[in-house]
# Entry
Amino acid sequence: MIKKILRWLILGGTLFFLAKALKDNWQGIAAIRIHAAGWAMIAIATGVTLLGHTWAGWIWTWILRNLNQPVPSVQFIQIYLQTNIGKYLPGNVWHYYGRIMAAKNANVSTSAATLSVLLEPLLMAAAALIVALLGSLFVKTNTNLTVHIGQILGLFVVLCVFHPQFLNLLIRLLHRLKTKNSNRTTISDVSFTMERYPLQPLLGELGFLGLRGIGFILIFYALSAVNSSQIPLLFTAFSFAWLLGLVVPGAPGGLGVFEATAIALLQNYFPTAVVISATGVYRLVSILAETLGAALAWLDERLFR
# Structure
């Protein structure tokens, strides 16, 4: 009950903030014009974002291989892209559920499939924290030392979670729960262990955040002039806003939370109307890229099954 109330409070507060920002800056937003070069930038941003989601699907196969579950890359990238739009359904878990079921049908251990979809957002969160921390070193802000210490401690905790000793403990717990609720054990259900730190998937998620951040910056370029000195600021703000959209409950796909956070972080450095427009266009570009990814994966699966 408390969790449901918290979700509604977050959603209501986010919508109120966005509505007020939109109302106060409506005239400035209406005055923005996108020229031919701007539309080209938006098209490129859509392609880069689609590439980022495809890259994330490939990273998922790396995570499964780290869990000693070798899987065909193309097939699982298709699964990833087709389930990705499920994040916008209420609950924000249906894309994970779809991947677990699809992996299980492909003879992947249920425990490994479950752990892989738990590890993926954690690796993404760690990557976003790394980008935000590195970016903050190049951005002059009023952030105090306590905030930086909190970020570093949070990153340290997240990175420690990926240590094989901790993960293998989690694997054993999942295996016990599954075998306790089942009277039979198949070959794919045999317990497994992680033998090494998932460094490669973590570096891959840094690439994913980089691609998503490039798409975000291209949207800004399409709407307004951006100095090269402002690129670290945009990367940092994007990473932090994307991270909050990932972890805050009650926001399917980070909808609303990402936009509100990006506006709050960037409105003192860019015209507020430009920031609101850029975050809105970026959300549309993200949904379009995810829809195109799902459609292309479905088409590729049907044509080259």
